Amino acid sequence: METTLERTPAMLCSGHAACPGCIEALSARHVLAQLGADTMAVIPPSCMAIIAGPQPYSSLRIPVYQPTLESSAAAASGLRRALDAQGRSNTQVVVLAGDGGTYDIGLQALSSAAERNEDILYVCLDNEGYMNTGAQKSSSTPHFARTSSTPQGKPTRKKNLTAILAAHGVPYAATASVGHLDDLRRKVDKARGLRGFRLLTLLVPCVEGWGLSDDGGLRAARYAVECGAFPLYEVEDGTRYTLNYGLRPRPVADYLALQRRYRGLSPASIAELQAEVDQGWQWLLRLAQPAEGQALP
To answer: Compositional bias (Polar residues) spans (predicted)?
Structure first.
């Protein structure tokens, strides 16, 4: 079967500056392929900014604007309005930002853009920390994960960005992973066809920051979904939750075992993380409807 990547030229060129095995570059490649050439990207300081390259050079075949770390959603809002004034309402405006510039430093501008229902697609490439500056913790970093700023393990849980943005009543908010590629492509296509504010939160395991093997990123992405640590779901108009992958065939311990940032974690801490994932899963089941053709457990 012919794929989107075969039908369209690559929007992310080879020779970029991503680390070997980088899941962020792979994720961006598929997102941009689904969006197509009539797209403009806003990319704040982040790993993605390094991958895209320093201006005026770029590894992307679409226009790129690099704002300050905290202002991605505001910059995208202004770009959207400028394009509309030119009669280019069909041109997609996409933000490609990391979790540091989304969960933390950019949250104020992000919440404001969602409240105004700005017609932008915001893609958070969530590698669960400030990986571009030495793997410090962010509010996306999970409980007990060791980072350069939490060497004994993070003492607090990960923030639920998707639920926070969904609570603004935006048209679309969803999680996705390149480890489940058909689901990712479908969600990008769905978001592209909508108007108003749309959020996609993509889990992008960081080979270096998480302590994975060079070829371990996709395995970690799949295990995160399969144990329920990163459930795949979507929320429409802030109220309609749909669970897209309703199975949990593995324990959280399998996922943790892949990552050096959890090495040496005690059995009691592993059990606590399993309980937290179970609690989050039950919360989602209470809100969600099953995807078409799938029964909830």
So the answer is: 135-153
Single pTM value for the model: 0.94
- pLDDT tens per residue across span 24-71: 999 999 999 999 999 999 999 999 999 888 878 888 999 999 999 999
Token pair, residue 232, equals 């795949």
Percentages of the chain per state (helix, strand, coil), in multiples of 5: 40, 15, 45
Question: CA torsion sign, 225 to 231 to 234 to 240?
Answer: positive
Q: Is 224 left (phi over 0), alpha (psi -120 to 50) or beta?
A: alpha
The answer as to CATH 3.40.50.720 being correct for domain 4-290 is no
Distances 145 to 37, 119, 261 between C-alpha atoms, Å: 38, 35, 6
CB contact at 8 A, 206 and 259: no
